[in-house]
Amino acid sequence: MDRDLPIERASSSDLMMLATGSRRVPEQMAAVLLLEPGPAFDARSAATLFTRRAAAVPRLRQRLVGTPPGCGRPVWVDDPGFDPGAHVHTARCPAPGDEQALLDLACAIATSPLPWFRPLWSATLVTGLADGTVGLVVVLHHVVADGLGGLALLGALTDGPGVDGATAAEVPRPRPRVAALAADAVADKVRGLSRLPGAAATVRGSMASVGGLRPAGVADNSLLRRSGTRRRVAVVRTDLEAVRAAAHHHGGTVNDVVLTAVASALGGLLSRRGERAHSLTVAVPVAARRPQAGSGLGNRIGIMLVPVPCDGPPRQRLATVAARTRVLRRATTHPPPLESLGPAFRLAARLGLYRWFMVRQRRMHTLVSNLRGPRSPASFAGAPVRSIVALPVGEAGNITVSFVVLSYAGTLAITVTVDPDHVPRPSTLAEDVLGALRELGAA
């Protein structure tokens, strides 16, 4: 192996994404781009363009493979039989051809397991929408990248300066030699031993952001029920500057406004079910990124658990949430639990104990992820990108509804993802979120 080529290993969080995936629901995520094509746009030519660009992105040519005994964690290697065309497809949008039909199709694509024998991604160009737009559904397995890494990959695939100047490697890079892997594994173990003196404090710090090792359980309600394999989504959009202004007025962030609105909407849902909740605990993923060798993708995600009030004056609730998240963000300085307790988590997942725990967990009621997308309008194959919707799927345990927030070109899109067996009408919940944003002066 060329000594200049680094060995790219899967992180502890990456391996956890592999371990928690199941045949029921794969740990995958999708981005749905809505394109506004001009008269010269051709779907097949666009698919060919996507194929060429994807071939020039190193991680999209790679597979994660195991190593011999004593050689450490799995490594990313070039797939010798890589065929980018096998990953890019076309489809026709089902009737009535509106955005919801596109999102339903995207859910079906995103919940279909990607083949493990090749790089873990796919792209589907969707034609036949009633208003003449074209959908682009890009699916990644979570082991390839987290949400931030996925957005970085999209930046290499949409139009932009230098994008089409990149070229694919003509010859796959050779796999690392066993001797090199073994030496690297020894060096990794030595680094691990050097961290042992502070390991107990690191674990305590990691677990503090998720309520500690033995937290008091959250109140039980109908939001916490064993989830199935189906997913359905609805999307609500609002002006990003309006949300930012409402947040800053109360010393908070955009995410604080969203947390407040989400809790209000879920409180309304529970009220319609004859239940009462004064507060809900919301899990907020926090990207703990650091410079690293290799692609800079992968996963390094921590979790912040935020108690969010459901009742009381809306602006007072926002101020409360802003104060709580300021304290919690300052405390979230340790590696995420999946990293500090990686081997234990992975063993539990292999034994089926992780899912056993997740369908019984009482640490959170829902999950709200926040991603910062491109600030300026993007395009693909010359077609402007009207909107981008983030669509995460994966093993949800007993979480029946979750949210992901994506900002793009001045618009904030909030995706409501539900198990339709427990929340049959996600559009109603999305409307309630929008109503709560209006109460906060954020819509």
TrEMBL record:
Pathway in which the depicted protein is active: Glycerolipid metabolism; triacylglycerol biosynthesis; Lipid metabolism
Example of a GO MF term: diacylglycerol O-acyltransferase activity
GO biological process, one term: biological process involved in interaction with host
EC number: 2.3.1.20
Keywords carried by this UniProt record: Acyltransferase, Glycerol metabolism, Lipid biosynthesis, Lipid metabolism, Transferase
Domain O-acyltransferase WSD1-like N-terminal: from-to ranges: 11-258
InterPro entries the record matches: CAT-like_dom_sf, O-acyltransferase_WSD1-like, O-acyltransferase_WSD1_C, O-acyltransferase_WSD1_N
Catalytic reactions of this protein: an acyl-CoA + a 1,2-diacyl-sn-glycerol = a triacyl-sn-glycerol + CoA
Pfam family, one: WS_DGAT_cat
Ranges of residues in domain O-acyltransferase WSD1 C-terminal: 298-440
A cellular component term, taken from the record's GO annotations: plasma membrane
Similarity field: Belongs to the long-chain O-acyltransferase family.
Protein name as catalogued: diacylglycerol O-acyltransferase
